[in-house]
Amino acid sequence: MNGDLIGAVVRLLVALPLILGIAYLVLKYGLARRYVVTTGNRRMKLVEQLPLGPKTSLSLVSLGGKYYLLAHQDNSVSLVKELDELKEPEETIVGDIVELTPRTIEEFDRLQKPVGAGVTGDLFDVFKEKCRPRLNKFKNFLLAKLAARKSSGE
């Protein structure tokens, strides 16, 4: 039993460095020739890539001061659009959604304090503060609609 164990350990100690050496040589010399890595200033740059599905994607490539939008499908690449310049992405504006998350540590602390401590830390008060302008605007809108109905005789 001990002889079998020693033989297995010896085979492992001989085979493992041999396999690691072969893997190193393949990665260094075999794959390096297949996938060329360029260093320094490159004229062509991948600006952005957007996958559309499992086998389709859009790529935005910069080359010589111009931008090219390319579509990739299975084994084909086609030019969708050539752009001279890119517009800066616009800031996303979320409509009239009330944000109830505390924006500062002080506001968070104020919400955590008990109401009886002399501070209005009630979440309902914060909600009223944030919604009051929108509620007043909505109230004025409804009053205007009601006045328009009364004047039209409905």
TrEMBL record:
One GO BP: bacterial-type flagellum organization
Pfam family, one: FliO
Entry's Gene Ontology cellular component terms: bacterial-type flagellum basal body; plasma membrane
Transmembrane segments: 6-27
UniProt entry keywords in alphabetical sequence: Bacterial flagellum, Cell membrane, Cell projection, Cilium, Flagellum, Membrane, Transmembrane, Transmembrane helix
Source taxon at top rank: Bacteria
InterPro entries from the UniProt entry: Flagellar_biosynth_FliO
Subcellular location per the Swiss-Prot or TrEMBL entry: Cell membrane; Bacterial flagellum basal body
Family membership noted in the UniProt record: Belongs to the FliO/MopB family.
Protein name, entry field: Flagellar protein
Lineage: Bacteria, Bacillati, Bacillota, Clostridia, Eubacteriales
